[in-house]
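As promised in the previous annual report, we have extended the structural survey to additional targets. Below is the entry for Phosphoserine aminotransferase.
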Amino acid sequence: MKKHNYSAGPCILPQEVFEKSAQAILNFNDSGLSILEISHRSKDFVAVMDEARSLALELLGLEGKGYQALFLAGGASLEFLMVPYNLMKEGGKAAYLDSGTWASGAIKEAKFFGETVVVASSKEENYNHIPKGYTVPADADYFHCTSNNTIFGTQIKEFPSLDMPIVCDMSSDIFSRVLDFTKFDIIYAGAQKNMGPAGTTLVIVKEEILGKSGRTIPSILDYEKHIKAESMYNTPAVFPVYASLLTLQWLKNLGGVAAVEKLNNAKAALLYGEIDRNPLFKGAAAVEDRSNMNATFLLNDTAHTEAFDTMWKAAGISGLPGHRSVGGYRASMYNALPIESVQVLVDVMKALETKV
Ligand code: PMP
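The corresponding C-alpha cell record, generated without further manual editing, is:
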C-alpha cells in the first residue's frame, strides 16, 4: 500500500513521475536504451536539459527577462559558497538573514569570502519565527535569505525591496506559491523537495549581476562558465534532471504554480486548523510565519506520544517525526502530497482526542 509520505526531503513526488522515470530507465523515448546509459551529449538528453531549463523559467514567470536556469551538482549546500564566490567583491561585504539552520550554513560559507553581516537572527528563540524590521547595509554586494525554513516550519511571506542583488535559497518551497520572482537575482533550490530526486540543484541567475566581483573563480564554481556551457560544463546528473523535467511537466499540466498554490493553501489550512482546534496539540512556529510546506507541531502532553505514534503509523503515514532540533512532529506537505493524505493525518489527530 502506498504510504502517506510526509518526509521533509527527499520526499513525495507525483506518482506519474515515478512511473515515467521507471519507464525511461528501461527504455528511454523508445530508443532501445536506458536513460542511464546514453551520453549527456546525445540529442535526446540535450532536449531534456533544454526543456527543463526553459520550463523552470516559464513556471516562475522569468522567461525572456534576462535569467538563465542551470541544473548543477553539489546540492543547495554548494550554492552556499558559489554565491559569495561569484557575487562578493574582494574586500566587499554581504548581508544575510539568519532564519534557520540552513541560513546559518550559508552564512558560515560566506565568511570564507569576506565580511558577512547578519542583519537579524531568530536563533535565540530556536528559529521559531522570521526576523523582521531589520536594516540591510546599503553598501552590501548582495542580500541572502532563505524563503522556507524546512526544519523549523517558518516561511517568509514578504521579501524586502532592496537596491542590491537579492539571493534566495528556495530549496523547500520552490514552485509552491506565486511570488514576484523578478525581485530575485539568484534563486537556488536542491531538487529533492518540490522538483525531483536528490542529485541536482536548480540555480536561476540574472545574468547582468555576474562578472562584477573581480575574483578569479575556479571554472566549476563559476556561474558564467555554466551558463556558457548551457548547463553541460561537466556531466550533469542526467537522471535527476530528467525526473525533475517530468515533475515540471506535471506541474504545468496541473495549471502551474498558481494552481498548486491553491491546493497547498487548502492543505495547510486543513492541518493548521486542526493543530489550533485540537487541545492536544500546539504549533511550534509563530502563527504569522507558518510554512505551508513544513508544518511543525507538538503534543501538549508528551505522555500521549506512544499512542499518537502508534495511531499515525497504523494509518499508513510515514515521515512524520520532527527534526531533532525542534522535536515533536513535522508534516511536510510538498506539491505532490494529496489533500487526502492531510485528511488522514487530521482524522488521526481527532481520533487521538476522543481516545485519551
Ligand atoms: N537549504 C534548505 C532550505 C534545505 O532545506 C536544505 C536541505 N534540506 C539545504 C539547503 C541543503 O540542501 P542540500 O542537501 O541539497 O545541500
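DSSP finds nine helices and 14 strands in the chain. Residues 9, 75-77, 102, 146, 150, 169, 171-172, 190 surround 4'-deoxy-4'-aminopyridoxal-5'-phosphate (CB under 6 Å). These points will be discussed at the next consortium meeting with the crystallography subgroup.
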